[in-house]
Design a protein that fits this description.
This protein is an all-beta fold. It has one domain: Methylamine Dehydrogenase, Chain H (7 Propeller). It has no helices and 34 strands. The two termini are about 35 Å apart.
C-alpha cells in the first residue's frame, strides 16, 4: 500500500499519520483497565476497538476492526464515551461512530461529514464541543461544533481557516484557548486563538513561528507554559515558550535539543513527568524530564529506549502508567511501563497486534 504522509521527506522509511490523542488526567493514579481504546487502520478502511486489561495490554472487541471511511489516518474519542471520530484521508471526510457502552462495538453513522483535501490530523477540546481537522492538501483547518445528543458535526462560520503548506499535526492547549499547527514544508508552527463559544480561529500576532526543518508532531505540556515540536529532518526538538495572554511563541532556553534519527512523534506525561519522542530512523524512544518554569529538558540516563519496530505514533494512557508506541512493519502496538518517579521506560511488551499497520490511537474516557 502506498502511504503519503512521508511524501517529500528524504529517506526510505514508510510510515503513517501520527496523532497523539492523549486524554487528560492527573496522572499516575489508576490503572487504565476497563477503558476502551481505538486504533485507526488505514489499509483496512477501519477502526479497531479494544478493551484495556489490568496489565495494560489490549483485548480486541468482538467484530473489530469496524468498517469506516477510506484510509483513516487519525482518530479521537468523545469525552462522553458515546462517539468516536475518524479523519479519512482517502475520502476527504470525517466518520462518526456510535459506541456500544456495553460491548465497545462501533457503528458508523452516515452520511460522513465533508472535510478538506486529505484530512491529516484531528484534535478535540476537553469538553467535547469542538473538533479541529487539519487538511494537508488544501492547506486549511476545518472546525466543527459537536452535538452532545447524537455526536453529529456542524461546520462553524468561516471554516475552513487557511494555514501553512502541508499541515501534518496539531496541538490544542489544555485550556482550549490556543491551537498550534505544524507546517512541514515551511519549518514553521502556525498559531491561532480559539474564539470561545463559536470555535472560530484568529491568527496569533507574529504567527507563523519558525522551528527546525520538518516539524512532524507537537504537544503542549500540562501547565500550558511550553510547546514542544519534533523536527523530523533536523533530528531535534524545538521548545517554545507560550505567552499566556496572546498564545505567541518564543524560543525556550537551550532549544532546540537533540533527539534520535527522524523524530516522528512526541507525547507528554499527563502529570508533566516527562516528554517522549519516538524516533523513526533510529527505532527508539528518547525520554526527557523538563522544567515547567524554564522549559529546559534533560535526557534520562538510560534514554533512548529501544523499540521493536519503526515507531509511527506515541500515546500515553490517561492515567500516565504506560506509553503506547505503534510500529511497522511489525504491525503492532508496544506497551512501555512508565517509571512513576523518573518517567523512564523500564520494560516493554507487545500490547496488541494488527493485521495491517496502525496509524493512530485514542483512549476513551
Amino acid at each position: 500500500m502506498r502511504l503519503n504522509r512521508w511524501a517529500g521527506v528524504p529517506g526510505t522509511i514508510l510510515a503513517l499519520v501520527f496523532l497523539a490523542a492523549c486524554g487528560g488526567s492527573s496522572g499516575g493514579g489508576t490503572s487504565p483497565s476497563g477503558r476502551n481504546v481505538y486504533v485507526a487502520i488505514p489499509g483496512a478502511n477501519a477502526i479497531g476497538s479494544f478493551r484495556v486489561k489490568s496489565s495494560g495490554d489490549f483485548s480486541a472487541v468482538l467484530g473489530s476492526p469496524f468498517a469506516g471511511g477510506l484510509s483513516p489516518g487519525s482518530v479521537v474519542a468523545h469525552p462522553s464515551g458515546k462517539f468516536v471520530y475518524a479523519a479519512n484521508q482517502g475520502g476527504n471526510d470525517v466518520s462518526v461512530f456510535n459506541v456500544d457502552s456495553g460491548t465497545g462495538e462501533l457503528v458508523e453513522v452516515k452520511p460522513r461529514t465533508p472535510a478538506g483535501l486529505n484530512p491529516k490530523a484531528m484534535v478535540m477540546d476537553s469538553g467535547g464541543t469542538l473538533l479541529f481537522v487539519a487538511n494537508q492538501t488544501s492547506n486549511n483547518i476545518s472546525v466543527y461544533t459537536i452535538s452532545a445528543s447524537d455526536g453529529s458535526l456542524a461546520e462553524v462560520q468561516g471554516s475552513p481557516f487557511p494555514t501553512g503548506a502541508r499541515p501534518v499535526a496539531m496541538a490544542l492547549s489544555p485550556s482550549g484557548k490556543f491551537l498550534y499547527v505544524a507546517s512541514a514544508n515551511l519549518a514553521s508552527v502556525f498559531g491561532y486563538t480559539v474564539t470561545s463559544g463559536t470555535g472560530a480561529l484568529q491568527v496569533i500576532p507574529l504567527s507563523p513561528f519558525p522551528v527546525e526543518s520538518g516539524p512532524f508532531s507537537l504537544v503542549v505540556e500540562p501547565s500550558e507554559h511550553f510547546l514542544y515540536v519534533a523536527n523530523f529532518n533536523a533530528n531535534n526538538v524545538s521548545g517554545m515558550a507560550i505567552d499566556p495572554n496572546t498564545g505567541g511563541l518564543t524560543v525556550a532556553s537551550q532549544s532546540p535539543f537533540a533527539a534520535g534519527t527522524n523524530p516522528v512523534a512526541i507525547a507528554v506525561h499527563p502529570a508533566g513527568k516527562a516528554l517522549y519522542v519516538a524516533n523513526a530512523g533510529s527505532k527508539n524512544i528518547s525520554v526527557y524530564s523538563f522544567d515547567s518554569t524554564t522549559g529546559v529538558t534533560t535526557q534520562l540516563v538510560d534514554s533512548p529506549f529501544v523499540t521493536t519496530s519503526t515507531p509511527i505514533f506515541a500515546t500515553v494512557d490517561p492515567a500516565g502508567n504506560f506509553l503506547y508506541v505503534g510500529g511497522q512493519p511489525a504491525n503492532n502496538i508496544v506497551r512501555f511501563q512508565i517509571n512513576q518517579t523518573t518517567g523512564g521506560l523500564p520494560s516493554n511488551t507487545v500490547a496488541a497486534t494488527t493485521d495491517l499497520a496502525p496509524a493512530a490511537m485514542a483512549f476513551g474516557p
